[in-house]
Automatic annotation (TrEMBL):
Originating gene: gpmB_2
Organism taxonomic ancestry: Bacteria, Pseudomonadati, Pseudomonadota, Alphaproteobacteria, Rhodobacterales
Residues that span the membrane, as ranges: none
Domain of life: Bacteria
InterPro entries the UniProt entry points to: His_Pase_superF_clade-1, His_PPase_superfam, PGM_Phosphatase
Any Pfam family matching the protein: His_Phos_1
Entry-linked CDD domains: HP_PGM_like (cd07067)
Name of the protein in its database record: Phosphoglycerate mutase
Amino acid sequence: MAIYFIRHGQSEFNAAFQGEVDPLIFDAPLTPLGFEQAAEARESIVTLGVSRVITSPLTRAIQTARTIFDGIAPIEVQHGHHELLKFSGDVGRAPAQLGADFPDLSFDHLPERWWHAHEDLAVPVPAEPMAVFQRRIAGFVTALDSIGDEDVAVVGHGNAFQEIIGFMLNNCQIHRYR
């Protein structure tokens, strides 16, 4: 059994963010460069024997997973390893909206609001407290322990993977977790 972490390709938020001002690109999709990065990663994974793919429900991760694994391994959407909510690009969308954009994937099992909620729902980007994020990621790592004897790819996000492995992955970098 092997588990591979793959960070999503460059998103429109990544391309627009200059480090201080949030460009207000909610649930940011991939850029053309992000799709190219994913296509290059596809060439690298063919020898890994991945039989199952778990992706975050954020659009950039789904697009990355589909570009890399379409026709290679089934893709399932899970929340828990989605990005630390700090900026607009980290705000998710409801399962029905995701299902309209990605009708070949199942979103019925997701809560209506699977990203960090705040008491004041009028706040468009409710920052997720670090302790809440860390508990969420720890729960995801515990769930990884239940993966049987199969090779799995997990497509997700920089801060989530950094919390688990201690360093930031580049866009579409493949890292063998275990």
